[in-house]
Amino acid sequence: MTQLWPAPVAAGPVRATVPVPGSKSITNRALVLAALADGPSTLRGPLRSRDTELMAAALRSLGTAVRDGAEGAWLVEPGELRAPASVDCGLAGTVMRFLPPLAALADGTVSFDGDPHARKRPLDTVLDALRELGADITGDSLPFELRGTGSLPGGQVTIDASASSQFVSGLLLSAPRFEQGVTVVHDGPPVPSLPHIDMTVAMLREAGVDVDDQRPNIWQVSPGPIRALDLDVEPDLSNATPFLAAAAATAGEVTVPGWPSATTQAGDAFRDILTAMGAEVALHAGGLTATGPERLLPVDVDLHEVGELAPTVAALAALADGPSRLHGIAHLRGHETDRLAALEREITGLGGDVEQTADGLLIRPRPLRGGTWHTYADHRMATAGAILGLRVPGVEVEDVATTRKTIPDFPGMWSAMLEPVA
Ligand SMILES: O=C(O)C1=C[C@@H](OP(=O)(O)O)[C@@H](O)[C@H](O)C1
Ligand SMILES: C=C(OP(=O)(O)O)C(=O)O
Fold first, then answer.
1. Which residues are known binding-site members?
2. Residue 335 Cβ < 6 Å to ligand 2
3. Residues 187, 298 share a domain
4. Dihedral, CA atoms, 258, 259, 265, 269, nearest 10 degrees?
5. How many Å lie between the centroid of ligand 2 and the Cα of residue 422?
6. Statement to judge: residues 102 and 172 lie in one domain
7. Is pLDDT at 156 greater than 90 in this prediction?
8. Active site located where (predicted)?
């Protein structure tokens, strides 16, 4: 029997300050770079949740020491890459796309597997690219085996990264340790989530690696050492969006402390989306404060660069004052679940009117009723259900624990947010 979480209804405008844990994208990039670096690294404020714990466990099995430091920090000491090893990717795109290039540097066999749905997420592009760069791999998706020889020639490879930016990021992150580095050329429809590739490039450069990204769709990483990291991880701005959305949905006011004034996180774009929906958004020394409007405005928004935000935006759109159009997100069909189908089915199931288009969703708000909100093992489906539940009595979210993928205690944070301010 699937566990159902009764999503709490907001008694009035939500007013809260919500500290949000560290960024998944920064943490998992930092772990990979630290494992390949020239000395021990310190990551302060990393995300400690399923996706990042899986990354840490995989790196440990490959010979890297990842230990606990003070206040939840991670101390990473690189070791010689060891095999045989096995990697559980869970449902983490970052683990399944970032680790095969690193594992290709181990001397021996590394086996990869993951959750049932992870076996369906696109991966062949990365594995084909690695084969072209000199790796010996059996299979095109999870599960597969990689037989490393302790080094990889590297060089130039042309891929179609239109299904996921992570194909590019994964190849770039380990490339300083390939004999010739790498030149990744994208050939195909536009790459989604480009800010995530920019984050990869910025973190490589921060670690002293030479990266040339001057030409569109071409990224070149020179071989060379990766400098050890000493890093304060920013809060996860994408994970902050359901909490800010609570303010938008209830004419409330929510502050997320520590919102960076400059960042490589794609989730920063949520500020503009909230503004377009009629909220007031203020970035100040204490963080980011969103104040919700009396009536939410509909939006016509291209989410190609920030597909991660689509479930939050869709939930808000279902509560808005008119029809919204979300587009540029065909690639969400290959995320944790087919997110376009899942959002269409679940919002429609509560009485809404949602239609899939070739690359997005048309959402026409209707009065909604309670019901079971299925989540398909997708953390962001669960948080989208919680947002709707603030305004719609009787929404029951299936398997809310799936939020542990990127938030260690979402139900606890959500309840704390809804407690009346003393
Ligand atoms: O590199 C990253 O950290 C991520 C890149 C994006 O992937 P896609 O390009 O597959 O959308 C994003 O949606 C994902 O949540 C995290
Ligand atoms: C697409 C996402 O995750 P992943 O890193 O597993 O691709 C996400 O977090 O929205």
1. 24-25, 29, 93, 121, 164-166, 193, 308, 335, 339, 380, 405
2. yes
3. no
4. 170
5. 36
6. yes
7. yes
8. 308 (proton acceptor)
